[in-house]
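retry 2 of 3: previous attempt timed out while embedding tetrahydrodeoxyuridine. Reduced batch size to 1 and resubmitted. Inputs unchanged:
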Amino acid sequence: MTERELCQAAVDMMARSYVPYSHFPVGAALECADGTVFTGCNVENAAYGATICAERTAICKAVSEGHRDFVRIAIAGTSDDYCVPCGTCRQVMMEFAPQMEVICLNGAGESRKFALKELLPYGFDRSWL
Ligand code: THU
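retry 2 succeeded.
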């Protein structure tokens, strides 16, 4: 899948977001080393802390289907600024693919790319355990 297609998949997923509280839809498209793509959206809950971000939805779908080798993820939001992953999602990405790339889109469809290591410098991982 091209980068443009991956970004479009993330944008399309915003339509599936369940966001009755924040009204802030987020879509994600996660590409694995073998080219498989898993998508996700945010799923909110009346108990706000039970909300699941779009990125973790996609990652959990991938891991539960036997994929852990992630290359890049596109994240789409409706904000003026680029939709960057929250701290928890950065940590979950770090668990499986510290070298992965993170492509963040704004509401205009423009994108900015980061290395996960840039977004989570000196992150905690299994090497401490
Ligand atoms: N959200 C995501 O889906 N991904 C992020 O990394 C940032 C936040 C969602 C969670 C919640 O449904 C809404 O955005 C507002 O925080």
